[in-house]
Write a structure and sequence with these properties.
With about 210 residues, this protein is of the alpha+beta class. The protein has a domain of about 120 residues: Trefoil (Acidic Fibroblast Growth Factor, subunit A) (Trefoil). The protein has two helices and ten strands. The strands form two sheets. Strands 1, 2, 3, 4, 5, 8, 9 and 10 form an eight-stranded antiparallel beta sheet that branches. Strands 6-7 form a two-stranded antiparallel sheet. The chain is flat, with a radius of gyration of 33 Å. About 20% of the residues are buried. InterPro entries: Fibroblast_GF_fam (IPR002209), IL1/FGF (IPR008996). One of its GO terms (molecular function) is growth factor activity. Keywords: Growth factor, Secreted, Signal.
Length: about 210
Amino acid sequence: MGWDEAGSQRLGLWVLMMLGVLLPEACQAHPIPDSSPLLQFGGQVRQRFLYTDDAQETEVHLEIKADGTVVGTARRSPESLLELKALKPGVIQILGVKTSRFLCQGPDGTLYGSLRFDPAACSFRELLLEDGYNIYHSETLGLPLRLPPHNSPYRDLAPRAPARFLPLPGLLPAPPEPPGILAPEPPDVGSSDPLSMVGASQGRSPSYAS
C-alpha cells in the first residue's frame, strides 16, 4: 500500500468520524413557533370584564348571577369577572369565574347562566373590531349577544344589532392581607443576653448578670 492510498483511507475515516459527530446535531428537531389562531391573545384562556355602553342607561359590565340571571352592572364585581376560552378559531365559551355558570343563549335570544356547558347554546363567535371592541353571535343560532334593557332581563331579547363589548383585562383587587406578626426587635448587642434566651431577670444565672 502506497503513501497516497494510506492517506486517502485516513482522510475517509476522518470524514466518517466527523459525520458521526455532526449528523445527530443536524438532525435534531427544533420547535416551531406556535402560530395557532387559538393563541392570538397570548393564551387560550382569558379573564376579562365585558364592558358595553350600547343602548344602556349607564355604562355596564356583563354579569352572571348565582341564580343564572344575566344582567348589566355599573361596577365591576366578582360576578362580572368572566373567563373566555377558545373552543376553535373565532369561537369561544364564556364562564362566570365566581358562579361557575356558562353564558348561554336560548332560541328566543334569552341570555342565561348554566351550570352545564351546552355547545349549541353556549358557544359564541367572536368578531374583533378595529376600535378594540368585540361583537359576539351565537354560533348555532346566529343571534347577537346583547344585554337586556336596564332592570329587565327578559324584554327585547333579540334586537337586530349586536352590542359592542370591550374586553377589559385584569383581576379584581386582592383583599387586604390580615395584619401579620410584628417583626422582632433587633438584638441588643450591648446586653449580656442579646437574643433574650434567658427570659426574665428573676432566676437568671449569675453567668448572665451584668
